[in-house]
């Protein structure tokens, strides 16, 4: 690359990185999470959460009085409220003053995730550490679509949970003289890669990083810009349920690009 091209690359990356940090600073995002409470079929009081909560027949029941100041879908809960979260989807929102009590379903289990805009994680956030952007980590690959989409099951950072992804194909690419083949999720116009590499657990988060892949051209060529490899929410909080990288996507090479572990270098 010429000097001007390199400068433009670095400028574009800096804008992407700033947008990522602004996204993480969302006052009700993952840095705001202060608790993850798994529900049972027995009515329970949750720590620092008003009301009584339990699960029956895949429905979450909430019992509260007006003085508890819980609301759902714009209405104050007075008596019993039933909510039915969708497996693997963003949770349903129950509000308690400035807080959001997100009701989620993961692998058939239900939980309440507490988002608090006054959380220490938000107050203490100073940015996302990352490798300096280097154009050498923009790698050309070849997209190889599967005859039919297939389901890939991975574990999660929470023991006992599973994630089910729709894989549309594989991508082959070569970096540092090593040819890798990975599975990618989503349709061809919105491909995403979930991977680990030789830096994982050392300078980058151990469970996985994600990468949005460019749309394949007419010949199936794609660009993998590893300088934009991003952390999953679980890198920032212990109260996420993120997937692990699939076995096929554990790269042998060290991808010294993209976001690093926000909790620092691991021993």
Structural account:
With 267 residues, this protein is mainly beta. The protein folds into two domains: 30-124, no CATH class; 127-249, no CATH class. It contains two helices and 16 strands. It has helices at residues 3-24, 120-124; strands at residues 33-38, 52-56, 59-64, 70-72, 75-76, 79-83, 92-96, 99-106, 109-115, 138-155, 162-175, 178-185, 192-195, 209-212, 221-225, 230-231. It has a six-stranded antiparallel sheet, with no helix packed on it. Strands 12-11-10-15 form a four-stranded antiparallel sheet, with no helix packed on it. The longest helix is centred in the N-terminal third of the chain and has 22 residues, at 3-24. The mean pLDDT is 95.
